[in-house]
Amino acid sequence: MLVLGVESTAHSFGVSVVSDSPPYILSDSRRVYTxxxxxxxxxxVAAFFSRVAGEVVREALESAGVRIGDVDAIAxxxxxxxxxxxRVGATVARALASYYSKPLVPVNHAVAHVEIAxxxxxxxxxIVLYVAGGNTAVxxxxxxxxRVFGETLxxxxxxxxxxxxxxxxxAPPYVxxxxxxxxxxxEGGDFIEGLPYIVKGQDSSFSGLLTAALxxxxxxxxxxxxxxxxxxxxxxSVVEVLERGLAHTGRREVLLTGxxxxxxxxxDKIEAMARVHGAVYKPIPARYAGDNGVMIAVTGMAAxxxxxxxxxxxxxxxxxxxxxxxxxxxxxxxx
Length: 335
Ligand code: FE2
Prior knowledge:
The chain is an alpha/beta fold. The protein has 9 helices and 14 strands. The protein folds into 2 domains: 2-113 and 290-333, Nucleotidyltransferase, domain 5 (2-Layer Sandwich), CATH 3.30.420; 123-281, ATPase, nucleotide binding domain (Nucleotidyltransferase, domain 5). The strands form 4 sheets. A 5-stranded mixed beta sheet has the order 3-2-1-4-5, with helices on both faces. It has a 5-stranded mixed beta sheet with strand order 8-7-6-13-14, with helices on both faces.
């Protein structure tokens, strides 16, 4: 069985073809929008996606060595994400499904981040920290769905890092050589007092931290010290939530996924925490931490095998589609 997956929720337009037999991942084509300055403007990204969509689909098929006619189903991330970008991916996937008479499979982007991590590590029943520019949550599976054991009350962790870096003038580019601008800036920094560490129950909050950190920089505190302290507080607060989730659920496996999962420093913190609890931690390759078409294709294949398809005329995008709104009946049979 072959499934083609389309990802377009944020800054990456990705298309992949996967098979249900080795080597599984047949292709992984992507184009990432990088703003020359400032943050992401959804309309500009959507225009960029529209320009590259055709060549990315063609490249994914060619490097997989298959024709669109060979594909059994088209999977697409319908949310959560930004509307203008989601609409491009959905339009491309609907057009392919409709023109080539292929079943269309709806995929939740957050579920796909978790499933690609399970798929690549072989960990079957983990507690998961999902940290990205658009999401921050601790999730684990229970009774048919991923359940949220803590999430951000305001901005996602990735957004905190990006916004801070942009405001103090050390980004874009946000990530170079696998290191975020804040991680680079933190080198040689020391921990300083005065920034708020906020965990409410099982939930994190970062907007107060951002405001306080920016105020410190503007009042002349050494940038490296603020970067270091901001990062330590942000990472430690999500690891704290993850640790309590691990203890509460009694899981024996820990995963980290989402764009911020590429961070070596966050990986090290989680590995150290897991070791204390005798739990297994396996990092995912940095290439699959951020958004990609493979995760949509892999999850779409599992969903398709369980009979999940959607009519082209009903395949609307869902910008706020939560991970705990999605049934995952394939959980124990995957990967
Ligand atoms: Fe993502």
